[in-house]
Write a structure and sequence with these properties.
The structure is a single chain. With about 450 residues, this protein is mostly helical. The chain has one domain: MFS general substrate transporter like domains (Growth Hormone, Chain: A, Up-down Bundle), CATH 1.20.1250. It has 20 helices and no strands. Helix 1 packs antiparallel against helix 10, helix 12 packs antiparallel against helix 13 and helix 14 packs across helix 16. The longest helix is centred in the last third of the chain and has 30 residues. The radius of gyration is 22 Å and the shape is globular. About 55% of the residues are buried.
Length: about 450
């Protein structure tokens, strides 16, 4: 995730109350729940519309098509139209598309509605972290951005668990209508808590395109986006099909959805753990590398072993999947921390966000389809670790091309872009602050 261009002020630059960024976070969670309303409903959709397994994978990934194609375009719109305005527009479009999908007579109609949901999701999540940066006071910024890194895991937990319970009493079409209503609930909160957008002097299309062009001409946003895609492809595939995997293992009722929700929710643990690790001096690149290794080990243990033939094996498998997701949460937070620093001085940090969003959503789109195709071709889920391990290896190779890391500093002292340490106390070579050195003299 990335910070906005410095040329995108809001109407009230003093309105940085702590109530603003939580409103944006709630909106992001509401938007992401549309991704996770589907997995628990897949069985009902397949029975109702005759959807195949490969088509189900396409339904999981097609919501990312807009993000694959329109990340940079959204960044330009954010530069021109305003961040709050785009976020609210995204929520409204998500609500309308969900209502449209509830009336789908066939799989193709539902896919079209999911594509429109993808446009709304894109408008919301590309600008949301940039908007958080604008409305948050400096002392709360680290907490706010770390909290934003948990939005996908939180949406997974709520979307899968609520969907699993709701679908015990009603059908998937009613669930789509409920989600259409829920998506609009953050809008009044945004209008009340978040300051209005204000047009700025350099808001023309040519100026916005120039800032975006300077940003995409650099290599690091492209590489970090591809690294992130190696994570999102496998995480989205595993979590998206997890209810189906549990059902094939013999679980029924709400338990496949509830266990999947827990696995998605613990992703927030890793996201919140990344900040302290970075503050202690561990670089983002090391965090990402070790995370990929851990995810590979967890996925092999999850899928290469036939747990269904072992007493209580399904519980062990559930723990391993939760470990896969929890450790994986370190990567979104590490990418967020890295991305906020790599825009050129005359570029647009919102464009960094748009570009990385565009790239890593290729993984979100392709991952579930590759996962389903591999399972269909080989006759089961037991070979899907080939995909997760291959993606992790590709991500670690891509990290090499980032060049020297801008990550953690020695002894946990992390300097800001201005050259000063976070606590504002400059130390001499002996390790004393200026004030302490004067006292010694």
């Amino acid at each position: 995730m990335a910070l906005p261009s410095p040329t995108t002020p809001l109407a009230d630059t003093t309105a940085t109350a702590d109530g603003a960024w939580p409103a944006v976070l709630i909106a992001g969670i509401a938007a992401a729940m549309h991704i996770w309303k589907l997995p628990a409903a897949l069985a009902g959709i397949q029975a109702d519309l005759g959807t195949s397994l490969v088509q189900a994978g396409l339904l999981l990934g097609i919501i990312q098509v807009a993000s694959v194609l329109g990340g940079l375009a959204t960044a330009v719109c954010g530069e021109m139209a305003g961040l709050r305005r785009l976020l609210i527009s995204g929520l409204v479009l998500l609500s309308a598309a969900s209502a449209l999908g509830a009336a789908a007579p066939g799989t193709e109609w539902l896919m079209a509605a999911r594509t429109l949901e993808g446009v709304g999701f894109l408008l919301a999540v590309v600008v949301a972290p940039a908007l958080i940066r604008k409305v948050t006071s400096p002392r709360r910024l680290h907490v706010a951005l770390a909290s934003w890194a948990t939005f996908q895991g939180t949406a997974t937990l709520i979307g899968l668990s609520a969907g699993a319970l709701f679908l015990q009493a009603a059908g998937w079409r009613e669930w789509w209508l409920v989600m259409a209503v829920l998506t609009l609930l953050p809008v009044p909160l945004l209008l009340r808590r978040v300051p209005k957008d204000r047009a700025f002097a350099d808001a023309g299309l040519r100026s916005a395109l120039r800032r975006v062009g300077r940003t995409v001409a650099t290599r690091r946003p492209w590489i970090i986006g591809a690294v992130f895609a190696c994570y999102t492809a496998q995480w989205m595939a595993v979590l998206g099909f997890l209810p189906s995997i549990y059902r094939s293992a013999g679980l029924d009722g709400p338990w496949p959805g509830i266990l999947s929700a827990i696995a998605g929710g613990v992703n927030a643990i890793g996201a919140l753990s990344a900040g302290p690790l970075i503050q202690r001096g561990l670089s983002e690149r090391k965090i990402i590398s070790w995370t990929f290794l851990s995810m590979s080990a967890a996925s092999v243990a999850t899928f290469a072993i036939g747990w269904e033939g072992i007493p209580n094996g399904i519980l062990v498998q559930a723990v391993l999947v939760a470990l896969f997701s929890a450790v994986g949460g370190l990567i979104p937070a590490a990418v967020t921390s890295y991305s906020v620093r790599i825009a050129p001085a005359d570029g647009s940090v919102t464009a960094v966000l748009g570009l990385t969003q565009q790239i890593f959503n290729v993984g979100n789109f392709v991952g579930p389809m590759m996962f389903a195709l591999l399972a269909s071709t080989t006759g089961g889920w037991g070979t899907t670790w080939w995909l997760t391990c291959g993606l992790s290896a590709a991500g670690m190779v891509l990290l090499v091309f980032l060049g020297r890391s801008d990550g953690g500093c020695a002894r946990g002292t992390r300097r800001s872009q201005s050259g000063f340490p976070p606590n504002g106390k400059i130390k001499c070579k002996a390790g004393h602050t200026i004030l302490e050195s004067r006292k010694r003299r």
